[in-house]
Amino acid sequence: xxTPEHTPDGRxxxxxxxxxxxxxxxxxNNMPMQATGEIDNCLNKFKDLFMHxxxxxxxxxxGISYSPKCLKDPEAHIECYEEYLFKMRALAxxxxxxxxxxxxPLFLFYAFHLVHTPLQVPKEYLSKLDQMVAAAGxxxxxxxxxxxxxxMNLYMDEAIGEVVKAxxxxxxWEDTLVVFTSDNGGPIYVPGSANNYPLKGGKYSDWEGGVxxxxxxSGGFIPEASRGTKFSGxxxxxxxxxxxxxxxxxxxxxxxxxxxxxxxxKKRSAFTCSGRQRxxxxxxxxx
Length: 287
Known about the structure:
Helices cover 31% and strands 5% of the residues. It has helices at 8-11, 33-36, 68-72, 82-100, 123-135, 144-169, 208-211, 239-248, 264-267, and strands spanning 16-18, 50-52, 57-59, 178-180, 216-218. Residues 10-250 form the Sulfatase N-terminal domain.
């Protein structure tokens, strides 16, 4: 985060729980070597987990993740799992909003750490996965990392189900728009263990497997005529910004960007194309 304005507080969120780096240990909230392939004395030791709201700015010292049992043997208790904390906070926000009976809308941004490295999941989800594979007549997943990756997807699927259940229990579902999206394709390197078939490539590549992902919208807000339909055109994750602004009835125009140097305007003729007009195309490598 370059400045406080880049934090969730600076972006206008009323509260948030999360971390500032990108590959936290799901149990200990530091950044282990197996997640990034590097040893960093600061990130490997520093606990990166924070909770902010209108009256509190600090770490989750009083949260379950810092309780004695989580400090001593976190993997023995599912409530010490980082994604469990995120899920429970999301569910609490939904129930608090539903109970308030307010006419103000709720915007909830649930950014899963799943299924990012390090590959870690509560043991019971590995057992659940094995049972599901066996019940479907499949063979046990021989790859340790692939098995972990699949079990993490199972945990995320159940968490999404709990969110939907909470929205329905609070009578909010019929007025809710759910958007599920991803920032990049699955990692096919070790220990990523994703599979983007039939697309070529994966995370860190500019092939479709790295930059093209699935997304869907759900919720009672979707018109009945649009439910179950598909769109195969090109959509960028940045397009959701304009979509949400349109739904909220606010202006989507962002701050004007400033040119790096005024002298560029005098030199730009060298880059001006002549002849047939061409459509611009930009390729951004998702990482």
